[in-house]
Specification:
It catalyses: a quinone + NADH + 5 H(+)(in) = a quinol + NAD(+) + 4 H(+)(out). This is NADH-quinone oxidoreductase subunit N. Keywords: Cell membrane, Membrane, NAD, Quinone, Translocase, Transmembrane, Transmembrane helix, Transport. There is one protein chain. The radius of gyration is 23 Å and the shape is globular. It is mainly alpha-helical. Helix 13 runs antiparallel to helix 15. It has a two-stranded antiparallel sheet with strand order 1-2. The protein has one domain. It is built from 19 helices and two strands. The longest helix is centred in the middle third of the chain and has 32 residues.
C-alpha cells in the first residue's frame, strides 16, 4: 500500500522545516563577522558571528518563512478541513483513521502560535544584535520548536502527539543555554532538561498503558473504546470490565502534560528557567510552549478520554485551583520583573485549565463551550503576555537586575513603553480599559458555573482579586517618579517597537471586539 500525502494539509509545518534547513545552510556559507567584545580585557572572539554582519538577514529569512506558513494556515481556513496520513477504511474496520487532521481546532492553535512567533522573532533580532549569541543556531532551533508547535494540534494519534510535543521541548533546552559563559542560563537549561525528561517519561508510561488496554494509538478509536462503544483486546468485558490500570494511565498522562504547562505540583522550575533564559526564550516558553502543552492536553482529555471524564475531571479541577492559587501567592512576593511574569504565567495556566474540569460533564457538550473558553483565554493571554515581555526586554537592555523598582517613572521617561506595559498589565489583571483580560475571565466564569463547579468559580474569583494586587503595584510604579532612578541611554531598534506594537494592537483589538475571539474558538472547538 502506498499512502497518499496531502501536501497542502502539511504545508505550514513543512514550510517551517524547509526554512529551518535553509537557515542552517545560509549560516554555514555566509561570511562570518566576529562579534564585538562586551567585556573589557577580552580578546576578540570569532567563535560565532555577530548579528550585524551578513547573517543579520537570517532573521528576515526566518520571519519570511513564518509569514508564508501563516499564509497557508489562512488559506486552509478558507478552503475547509483536510486530513492526511490516513489508514484506509478497509484496513481499519470501516472507519477512516488519520494521524494529521486540519480542522478549526488545529487552525486556531497554529495561527496563534505563528502570530506569537512573529513577535518572538522580532524580539530575537534585538537580543541577537549584541553578538553574544550564535545567530544561525538560534533561528534554526526556534524554527524547529515552531514545527512541533504547529504540528501538535493537528496530531490525532498518540505517537505523533508525543513526537510533536518533544519537538517543541527539545530545542528550547539549547535556546535557554545559548547565552555562553552565563551560569544562570546553563542552570536554567539543566533544570528545564531534567523536568522535561521526567515529564516525558511519566507521560510515555501513561500512553503505553492506554495503548496496551485499547490496542490502538488513534484518538478517535481510544474515545470509542473508553466510552464503551467499541471492544478492545485488553478488555475482556468491554467498558464495564476496565481495570484500575486505565485510571493509572489517565492520571500519568495528565501529570505529564501538567509538567509541560507548569501546573501545580510540577511548577517549581518556571521562575528559575524564565529568569535564567533570555527574554525572547522566556516569552516563547510562556506562550508558544504553553499553547502546545494545552493543545495536547485538550486533545487527549476531550478527544480520546472523554469516556473517562469521571476520573480526570476532578483531578483537573483540583490542579487548576491549586495552580492559580500558588502562582498568584508566589507572584506577590517577587521583586524581579521576569520572575513575577513567570509566576503570573503559572497562575494564568490555572485559569486556562479551569474550564477543562467541566469539559465532559453531563451538563456540557463534548468539545463545545468549555474547550472554547479555554482556547479564547489562551489566545487573549498570548497577546497580553507577549506585550509585557517585549517591554521588559526593552528595559532589560538598560538595567542589570531588571527589578520592579527599575520601572519607577517609566511612563514619565519613556511614555510609549510605559503606557504599553501598563495596558498589558491592566489586561492581565482584568481591569478597564484592558477589557480583553476581563472578558477572558468572564468566558471562563460562565462555563465553570454552567458546568456546575461553583466551588472552582469561587476559587477563581478569590485569585482574581489576589492577582489585582501585584499587577496594580507594578502599574503604579510606572507612573510614580522616583529620585535617583534612571535608565541608561539606549535607543532600541525598530524591531523592539514593532514587537511591542503588534502585541499591543492585538490586546487592544481583543478589548474592543472580544466576541471575535469567542466566536472563532467556539466554532473551532465544536468543529
Amino acid at each position: 500500500m502506498i499512502q497518499q500525502i496531502d501536501y497542502f494539509a502539511i504545508a505550514p509545518p513543512l514550510v517551517l522545516a524547509l526554512t529551518a534547513g535553509l537557515v542552517l545552510l545560509l549560516d554555514a556559507f555566509l561570511p562570518a563577522r566576529p562579534r564585538a567584545n562586551t567585556e573589557p580585557g577580552q580578546a576578540l572572539d570569532a567563535s560565532f558571528p555577530s548579528a550585524r554582519g551578513p547573517k543579520a538577514g537570517l532573521g528576515l529569512v526566518t520571519l519570511a518563512g513564518v509569514l508564508v506558513s501563516l499564509g497557508f494556515v489562512i488559506a486552509q481556513a478558507l478552503t475547509g478541513g483536510r486530513s492526511t496520513f490516513c489508514v484506509p477504511p478497509g484496513l481499519s474496520g470501516g472507519a477512516t483513521l488519520c494521524s494529521f487532521v486540519v480542522d478549526g481546532f488545529t487552525l486556531v492553535f497554529a495561527g496563534m502560535v505563528l502570530v506569537a512567533a512573529v513577535v518572538v522573532i522580532l524580539m530575537s533580532m534585538t537580543e541577537l544584535a549584541g553578538g553574544a549569541i550564535p545567530v544561525g543556531e538560534w533561528y534554526f532551533l526556534l524554527l524547529c520548536t515552531l514545527v512541533g508547535a504547529v504540528t501538535l494540534p493537528a496530531s490525532r494519534d498518540l505517537i505523533m502527539l508525543v513526537v510533536a510535543l518533544e519537538l517543541v521541548s527539545l530545542p528550547v533546552f539549547a535556546l535557554t543555554a545559548m547565552k555562553r559563559y552565563d551560569g544562570r542560563a546553563s542552570e536554567a537549561a539543566v533544570k528545564l532538561f531534567v523536568v522535561s525528561v521526567v515529564s516525558t517519561a511519566i507521560m510515555l508510561f501513561g500512553v503505553s498503558l492506554l495503548y496496551g488496554i485499547a490496542g490502538t494509538v488513534y484518538l478517535s478509536r481510544l474515545s470509542a473504546v473508553f466510552s464503551g462503544q467499541a471492544a478492545a483486546p485488553g478488555l475482556a468485558e468491554g467498558a464495564a470490565g476496565m481495570p484500575a490500570v486505565v485510571t493509572v494511565g489517565v492520571v500519568l498522562v495528565v501529570a505529564g502534560f501538567a509538567f509541560k504547562i507548569a501546573a501545580v505540583p510540577f511548577h517549581s522550575w518556571a521562575a528559575d528557567v524564565y529568569q535564567g533564559a533570555s527574554v525572547p526564550v522566556a516569552a516563547l516558553l510562556s506562550v508558544i510552549s504553553k499553547a502546545a502543552g494545552f493543545a495536547g492536553l485538550i486533545l487527549v482529555l476531550v478527544a480520546a478520554l472523554s469516556g473517562q471524564a469521571a476520573t480526570w475531571a476532578p483531578i483537573v479541577g483540583i490542579v487548576a485551583a491549586l495552580t492559580m492559587t500558588v502562582g498568584n501567592l508566589l507572584a506577590m512576593r517577587q521583586r524581579s520583573a521576569v520572575r513575577l511574569l513567570a509566576w503570573s504565567s503559572v497562575a494564568q495556566s490555572g485559569y486556562i485549565l479551569a474550564p477543562l474540569a467541566v469539559a465532559a460533564t453531563p451538563r456540557t457538550v463534548i468539545g463545545s463551550g468549555a474547550v472554547g473558553a479555554s482556547m479564547a483565554y489562551l489566545v487573549i493571554y498570548a497577546a497580553m503576555n507577549l506585550g509585557a515581555f517585549a517591554v521588559v526586554m526593552l528595559v532589560s537592555r538598560t538595567t542589570t537586575r531588571n527589578e520592579l523598582d527599575d520601572y519607577r517613572g517609566l511612563a514619565l521617561r519613556r511614555p510609549a513603553a510605559g503606557i504599553a506595559l501598563a495596558f498589558c498589565l491592566v489586561c492581565l489583571a482584568g481591569l478597564p480599559p484592558g477589557l480583553a483580560g476581563l472578558f477572558a475571565k468572564i468566558f471562563v466564569f460562565r462555563e465553570i458555573i454552567e458546568g456546575g463547579s461553583g466551588w472552582l468559580a469561587l476559587v477563581m474569583a478569590v485569585n482574581t482579586v489576589i492577582g489585582l494586587y501585584y499587577y496594580a503595584i507594578w502599574t503604579a510604579r510606572l507612573f510614580t517618579p522616583a529620585a535617583g532612578t534612571s535608565l541608561a541611554p539606549y535607543r532600541p531598534p525598530a524591531t523592539t517597537w514593532l514587537a511591542v506594537g503588534l502585541a499591543l494592537a492585538a490586546a487592544v483589538l481583543f478589548s474592543i471586539a472580544p466576541q471575535l475571539v469567542l466566536d472563532m474558538t467556539s466554532l473551532s472547538a465544536s468543529g
